[in-house]
Amino acid sequence: MKFYGYVLERGGKITLQPIEAPENSWKSALEVFETVYEHETKVTKMIYSLMDSAKEEKDYASEEILNWFIKEQVEEESNSSYILETLKMIKESVGGLYQLDHHLGKRQ
Predict the structure, then answer these.
(1) pLDDT digit string (tens) for 45-86?
(2) Does 108 have pLDDT greater than 80?
(3) Alpha helix segments (H runs only) across the chain
């Protein structure tokens, strides 16, 4: 919605297109977060590509909003990487999964 609002604010037109449904079936929590981390790195690359275009066009306003997304992606990649690496360590340990769930449930 942040992109959507920005484009409208700058006088742009938005045409929404259908998107493919995401995967929704995994064999393990580890597999879920491998997919999550892969997705977050893909999103980061797409934002970097937009930033490259903004810099090339000297579109300083777009650079500013993209900086917000870049900072957000640092956090998203860090969070998903932490969960992924933790899941690799605890493997299928029910107690480990419970502790991770408990820890993640306390985050805001």
Answers:
(1) 999 999 999 999 999 999 999 999 999 999 999 999 999 999
(2) no
(3) 2-9, 29-57, 60-90, 94-105
Structure token digits, residue 74: 């640092």
Q: Which domains does the chain have, with CATH numbers?
A: 27-105 (1.20.1260.10)
If you count them, how many residues does the chain have?
A: 108
How many angstroms separate the CA atoms of 23 and 84, rounded? 18
**Joined tokens for residue 98:** 């419970």
What is the token pair recorded at 56?
């090339």
Other residues' Cβ atoms within 10 Å of the Cβ of residue 49: 10
